Amino acid sequence: AFEGKSAIIDSISGAYAVGDFTEFKIVNEEVEVDGDLGFARGNYSYVGIPTDGSDSMLFEGKYLTIFKRQSDGTWKIYRDCFNSNK
């Protein structure tokens, strides 16, 4: 689990150090709002292209993202979870 902006940025930077990502696709299967909280649930897929020249790989998984309405009316991610199908 990553908590805080710098920890999240570090984790993403580490992922990009080993390769690039293409064909990223998100499919929302369900979206609901209840008061100041909302969620989106669905599936994702992308192709990973390693920098070492090895074969690209297809990654697939599912996600659940919880959003929280801010005092100015905008929505920000409050919690986010995703899991690979592999």
Q: Mean pLDDT score, rounded?
A: 92
Strands in their spatial order, largest beta sheet: 1-2-3-4
* Element-level helix/strand string: HEEEE
Number of strands: 4
Distance between the termini: 19 Å
What is the global morphology? globular
Taking Cα atoms only, what radius of gyration do you get, to the nearest Å? 15 Å
What secondary-structure arrangement, pairings included, does this model have?
Elements: H1 5-17, E1 19-34, E2 37-50, E3 57-69, E4 75-84
Antiparallel strand pairs: 1-2, 2-3, 3-4
Walkthrough of the structure:
By secondary structure, this protein is α+β, with helices and mostly antiparallel strands. It is 15% helix and 62% strand. The protein has one helix and four strands. The chain has a four-stranded antiparallel β-sheet with strand order 1-2-3-4. Strand 1 and strand 2 form a beta hairpin. The longest helix has 13 residues. The protein is globular, with a radius of gyration of 15 Å. The mean pLDDT is 92.
